[in-house]
Each structure stands twice: as C-alpha cells, then as structure tokens.
Amino acid sequence: MDIAGSTALVTGANRGIGRHFVEQLLERGAAKVYATARRPESIGILDPRITPLYLDLLDEESISAAAATAQDVTLLVNNAGIATGANLLTNDLDMVRQDLETHLFGTLRVIRAFAPALASNGGGAIVNILSVLSWVATAEGSGSYSVAKAAEWNMTNGVRVELAGQKTLVQGVHLGAADTDMMAGRDAPKIDPADVARAALEGVQAGAIEVLVDDPSRFVKSALAGDPTLLYGQPSGN
Q1: Were 124 and a residue from 47, 74, 83, 171 both cysteine, which residue would form a disulfide, CB within 3.0 to 4.6 Å?
Q2: pLDDT at 237
Q3: CA quadruple 122, 105, 22, 175: dihedral positive or negative?
C-alpha cells in the first residue's frame, strides 16, 4: 500500500520507535495519524494531521473507544509494549502474565478491534513490532519477554492467514535492540529507533510480510534451521 494519503494509528506513539513512526508517516504524506498512548497528552508532536488518543493494551474499553473513533484507519502499527525483566523460574508468575497480557493478548485485542475498519477501507495493513527474542532466549532477564514475543510472533502469523481474505497485509518486524527508554541501562549494541520505523514503512510499501531490521535479527533467523548449539552452545556437562 502507499503511505501517502493513508490514515494510520500507532500505539505507544509518545516515545521511542512509536514516535519515529508518527514522524515518518507524516514525512511520507499520511493524511492522518492517530497517535495513541496511555498518556496522550505526552505525544508532543505538533501537526494538524495528528489526533492523540488514549489507548492502553490492558484496558479493553480504551481499545474499543479508539476503534470507534478511528474508523477510517488503513494502517495499524502495533508498537506499544513493556518489559518486566522477569525470569521464568525465579520471578512471580504475575510478571510473566503481564508480559503475555500486553504483547500477546493486548496486541490481539487491538487487531480484533480494528480489523473490521481495515476491511471496510479496502484491507490496508497491520505492522507488529516484534523482536529477535521472538526466536531466541537469553540469560539476561528476558525470559518472560521472549515467551511473550514468541507468542506474539505466531499470533502475527495466525492473523495474517485469517485476514488474507479481506486483503489486509500483516507484517512482522524483528530487531535486536533499539536505543529507546525500554533498553536504557542495558549494555548491548543498539540501533537508531528511526531505522526501525523506516524499514517497516518501506516494507509496507513493498508488500513485505516480514522485515528484519538489523544483523542480529538476520543472524538468528538464518540459524533457526540449523543446529541449536549455534545459538545456545553445548549443554553443560558435555
């Protein structure tokens, strides 16, 4: 689809990758951008084409209200998320559930709410911001996040199949780490969040169902079909 003239809705639009999506959508000629956040007053981008909206992935009423307002949407960007930092074996299971409720069920609620509008408006596109951790686990306090992103990845595949009949493009975007507030304090190579938005929107215009933004995502994706010791090493004791 063509970004120019589109009507987009971006979740988590007040900072990081979401903010760059809003800015680049405007630069590419979007007619309107619904910029959503739990605190819409924090959007902070002044442009007459922006409509700030309240949306919380854990608040189903807020999702329904946003969908009722933004019935002209043709491009949905699911960017909002959290990272509890929970380990699978040692942290409270409620923290694991929070990651899953946000990334899997929260994102799915948004898709279910906006799918009818996308169908009415010709199909359009959905962009889900995923992660290299959709495919690999690490020992750095990301076990819960990895599980949630793996579930969101296959949910992305599932809704792609279910929405094919209404001609909705469903794109999954994978990256290692971006220089955002969520990654602050983590000692890892980080890419510019603007590069994530740029790669995803170029992928939308090209009709791509998957976008690998950086070298870590490309490496892990290529390694999935091989020996898992490439990713995890030999088990201890061997």
Answers
A1: 74
A2: 56
A3: negative
